[in-house]
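FW: tagging you since you asked about this chain on Friday. Here's the raw sequence from the shared folder, copied in full. Didn't touch anything.
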Amino acid sequence: AKEAGLAADKIRKIIGKESGGKADAENPSGATGLIQFMPEIAKSLGTTTEELKKMSPAEQLPFVVEYFKSRGVTDKHDQGDYYVAVAAPAFLGKPDATEGYKRGTPEYDQNPSWDVDKNGVVTVGDLKRWGGGKRSSETKAPTADAEAEVNRLLEEGGY
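HL: got it, structure written out here
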C-alpha cells in the first residue's frame, strides 16, 4: 500500500467494513470481494465478480490497490474519503453538503444506514461519517484468519 501511495490502515478499515476480510463476501446487489466490487468496476479492472469470488485475499488485494489508485486516492485522503471512493466514487472530492441519494432511490433503499442524520437524503458528509469509522457497530466482524491474512498482506506483502 505504501509503495502505491496508499494508507494500509485505511484500506484495512474499509475491508473490515465491507467484507470482514472475506474475499468471497457477496451482497444482494452483486457486489463481491474485499471492498465489494460492483460488476462494472470489476470489469474495468480486467476481471469479473465471479473471478474475484474465487480469489484468495492475496490474489484480490492487487485489485483493491489498483481500484484506489485509479480513483486518485492517496495516503493524504482521510478515512471518510476512502469510504466514499468505494461506496459512491462519483462523489469523491465533492463538498460534504453534496446530496447523493434520496429516499426511494435504489442506492438509498439498499443502504439506509448511510443516512446518518435520518433526513431522507444521503450526503457526502453522511457517507464520510458512516464510512469513516464513526459507526463501528456497523463493521462486519472478520474471522480471525481473514483479518490476520489481510493485515499480513497489507503490511508485508508489498500491497
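FW: The longest helix spans residues 57-70.
HL: agreed, and DSSP finds eight helices and two strands in the chain.
FW: great, closing this out.
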